[in-house]
Model the fold of this input.
Amino acid sequence: MAVAGSIDRDARVRKTAVSVKNLGYEVTLLWGARGAEETVHGDIDGVRTIGLPVRPLLQQHQAERTQRKQRSMGQRLGLTYVDQATKVAVATELEVARARLPLTPAPGLVARERLHRLRSRGVESIGKSVAAPRSQPESSTDRQNTSRNWRGVLASIADLETVFTPMMISLKPDILHIHDVHLLWGAANAKRALLHGGQKVSLIYDAHEYVAGQPSSVQFPARTRAGLESAAMDHVDAVITVSEMIAERLSNEYRLPVKPTVMLNVPRRLDLAIQCSRHLRRETGVGAATPLGVYSGVLGPSRNLPVVLQAVARVPGVHLAIVCVPSVTCAAAVELAKTAQDLGVNQRIHLLAPVAPEEIVSFVSSASFGLIPNTAGPVNHQLTLPNKLFEYLLAGLPVAASDLAATRQILTDWQVGCVFDPGDPATIAKGIEQVLRDHDGLAKATRQPDLVKTFMWEGQEAGLAQLYDSLTSPPGPANLIAAAGRKTGEEP
Done:
């Protein structure tokens, strides 16, 4: 089993590894130990873990090459300064010139200042270009057009493959279970090498996201991400994913003969019995009679938290605890604290350090409601079901969430919360007011026996067992994609 990032807070990867071990398999979990100098060995409930040091060599080289090109082009056109020192020198000269003039600067100075601002932006943007997030899904044509060039774009993927693929081959597994898309092509190559050596091996792709519908990032543009997935799917024997809606998309787009196995990101029964040593209301200093919402998770832009703070400002008396991942000292948390101060709600916003994944249900259980304010733009947000949704529900919390298709369906079907427009602070405020007004009935609905049974990890394990059994019971299945007669008309 392999995942590109850390496993410290990846509850899904940890639970899946232990579940497969409990099915009777010997499991080795590989993970990316970025910044580590040496291999990190560990154990999770009998699962051997190996953290592989990942160094961004090709990624850094690609960034430096891009930086050189940007600088060279900008300098030739006179659009950027040669270096930061030149920029500072010119800024000082302009400051002196302005100080020597009357209140109305001469036209020549105004023009020089405009040129200076232009050139300064050029210096600051070198090596920092950010692709704009896409709000629309990539079409099949986009994927076909970009599947040829993704290898040359995703230097970060190449850095991972140089470390992970040889290790996958050396372990000689019967099954390769890959979490997320980052290591999928590396696993496909490992599978090909093992088959060439005469060993039968099956490849499972555990798709945690709908990658074609994710927003772009600098290291992982949306089109090239989809191209990687498309190229590797010919080598995949079985697919797992996190929601029915993503399963439908993948099944249709890749013409899978067998629909992906859906394993929701839900807590284990054991997690409900764990008592966290920390207490949410005690840490926030908010009494039991005061409404207290909670958000638990990463603080990235797509989580929409600055808009949430504007909404809280419209609901007097309501407090909000934000459990900050990765930490309360990260840049995003510091910025949130400043925003709360500016809005005058800093006394009602509480930034808290994260707890272990297994302790989240216990930690948030004293809140009045859970909050999921993800932005509506990325298609992946519409289709996926976040961990926190089920953590809130099994903690007995009603949920106020962004009006996203998959989340809305859960809240509506089980009558355990309400939805709002994540772009409108007034609508978010109304959602908070509604969930507080209907609190008792919504909270009671979270305690339905069928809900608890449905959204428990142990209920997901049956599908995992069936999938593994299908891959190991003779005769082994042919490649799912090939069996479906998938034809792209061209080599990716």
Summary: Residues 77-125 form one domain.
